[in-house]
Amino acid sequence: MNAQQLSERLARVASFVPEGARVADIGSDHAYLPCYLVANGKARAAVAGEVVKGPYESAWHQVREEGLEDRITVRLADGLRAIEPEDQIDTVTIAGMGGSLIRSILENGKEALTGVKTLVLQSNIHARTLREWAEQHNWRIADEAILEENRKIYEVLVLQPSQTPVSFTAEEKLLGPVLMKERSDVFRRKWTGEIMQWRRVLHSMKEAEATPELQARRMQLEENISMAEGVMRGEDTERI
């Protein structure tokens, strides 16, 4: 992978960036994504943000190698603190992290999201927590994608600010409102595997002491299995 040829995962993220965007890529690593977007004319300008010095230096060298210093700014900063008002950022991408870390970045820097019209979030795990954050902060899910690369499954969420209250069902938070309608082969593989894992965990709980915490965990797993199996069968679900 390089700035000219992205991985399938990052290419999917890039596909959701609006034409002519001003992008902040948070946790940019080698800055492949912003370099690709700017070099191919999809983004007018970009900020590559990194909190760790090593990746920050890699990003800076990549931008300089591509000759894009005039349109891509590389900043050493924690999360959304990489964004400054004069950047006029309208699109934020955060890719290659767990959902909980992405949520923490959004929550800790939400003041920087003023004026942002699109969030493209690619989580390695726990996409559910991003949907919960979106509901709490009135961001609607404009699109979603699920893909498999190198035997790992990733989800991509595209969020846009909503002028009206946002609400998702329990099924939509767990499985994704767009993804659960499409029920692609990758989607089915993911949730078949999750159901099998949940059942193994439930089985391992049988001999454990029935504490209130364990009982709550058991009920949550049973609810997850019921929801996932219902969607896999194509059953209509009630709004919760």
Outline of the structure:
The chain has 240 residues and is an alpha/beta fold. It is built from 9 helices and 7 strands.
What does this structure look like?
It holds the Pfam family TrmK. One of its GO terms (molecular function) is tRNA (adenine(22)-N1)-methyltransferase activity. The chain has helices spanning 8-15, 32-39, 53-66, 99-108, 128-136, 170-175, 177-182, 185-204, 212-232, and strands spanning 21-26, 43-50, 72-76, 91-97, 118-123, 139-149, 152-161. The chain has 240 residues and is an alpha/beta fold. The protein has two domains: 8-165, Rossmann fold (3-Layer(aba) Sandwich), CATH 3.40.50.150; 168-240, Helix Hairpins. Strands 3-2-1-4-5-7-6 form a seven-stranded mixed sheet, sandwiched between helices. Helix 4 (99-108) runs parallel beside helix 5 (128-136) and helix 8 packs antiparallel against helix 9 (212-232). Residues 236-240 have low confidence and may be disordered.
Layout: helices, strands, pairs:
Elements (H helix, E strand, L loop, with lengths): L7 H8 L5 E6 L5 H8 L3 E8 L2 H14 L5 E5 L14 E7 L1 H10 L9 E6 L4 H9 L2 E11 L2 E10 L8 H6 L1 H6 L2 H20 L7 H21 L8
Key phrases:
240 residues, 9 helices, alpha/beta, Rossmann fold, SAM-dependent methyltransferase, TrmK, SAM-dependent_MTases_sf, Helix Hairpins
Share of helical residues: 40-55%
CATH topology of the largest domain: Rossmann fold
CATH class of the largest domain equals Alpha Beta
Number of strands: 7
User: What is the CATH-assigned architecture of the largest domain?
Assistant: 3-Layer(aba) Sandwich
What's the pLDDT, averaged over the residues?
A: 94
